[in-house]
Amino acid sequence: MKVSKKILTILKKNGVNFFLSVPCKLLSNMISILEKDKEIIYSAVPREEEGIGICAGAHLGNKFPCLLLQNTGIGNSVNAIVSLLKYYKIPTILLISYRGTPGETVKAQYQMGSITKNLLKTMNVPTLHCNKFGDLDKISKYVVKSKKIGTPVAILCDFNLMKADQ
Amino acid sequence: MNRFDLLKLIQKQIRDYHVICNIGYPSQELFKLDDRSNYFYMLGTMGLCSSIGLGLSLSIDEPVISIDGDGSILMNMNTLATIGNRSPNNFTLLIIDNGSYGSTGDQKTFTNEKTSLKKVAMGAGCKNVIECDGIETPKVLSEAIKCTNKSYVIISKVKPGNIKVKSIPLNPIKIKERFKKNIIKS
Known about the structure:
The structure holds 2 protein chains of 2 kinds.
Chain A: H1 2-13, E1 18-21, H2 28-36, E2 41-44, H3 48-60, E3 65-70, H4 72-75, H5 78-86, E4 92-98, H6 109-113, H7 116-122, E5 127-130, H8 139-149, E6 152-158, H9 159-163
Parallel strand pairs in A: 1-2, 1-3, 3-4, 4-6, 5-6
Helix pairs in contact in A: 3-5
Chain B: H1 3-14, E1 18-21, H2 25-33, E2 39-41, H3 49-59, E3 64-69, H4 70-75, H5 78-86, E4 91-97, E5 100-101, E6 107-108, H6 117-123, E7 129-133, H7 137-146, E8 152-157, H8 172-185
Parallel strand pairs in B: 1-2, 1-3, 3-4, 4-8, 7-8
Antiparallel strand pairs in B: 5-6
């Protein structure tokens, strides 16, 4: 719970107040915390691309949105990230469980795992890779950047980091 | 009656509300009719109009109207489930169902065949789902906008066809910034 709590505390401290999630086992602690949090708006969504759309609407309504998703979901939302979030300069936090990283038990996850960083780089999405607890302190900088220049940013959370938090 | 005729018919009803408008001809036709800063025109991401409207309506108290199309709804049907379960009372989803992918060459959509968006929306959990002809739409829409304790999904059946329009000359940042000014004021 330590990692999940720390990530959410940092996001909320920096003004993030609208959360959506597409489920991943590694994000389940964070989702449980969000479900009970009365200070923010939270909902589950069935698919990542739709979540990007809802995040864009939340931004129009002066909220600061965050979508929790597995890295496989980046593949489902490439067009929405570039043609909506990037094109209209919409600050959004993409909080991503980074499957296919060391510790991963599902072989199929390595397919998206191996291209995730390149995909984000191609889309020009500033990306923070967290593989140890100390890396979480850098999240603030990325949240501030998202708001300042109007861009989605990606926070990639490694398998082992999140697994240890379960 | 086609989409443009319907937009003309409802123009006065929607002009003072926050409107999210579908990509392509719907936005271009609305722009031609009456360009307003409280209209958010989509320039990309077909399918997400209803989702953007939902996100906005969850974030503010004022009424929000999404003007979507059958082809776009078919592309992102899962959002009907999110709307069905989470939609706040200030949200009206108006689906202009002309059975046609108007912006890509008027190919027919499945609403011409076996798919009923009314049944899909109801099955997804949406309440107050009303299917009507274009001509009846102003009355239904007026009820939906006035009713502050219910969310609505309106499926307005019209004929296919587009009018000659130019691309929207506004850049996305301009569309967004001027739209947001209305939100701050209200």
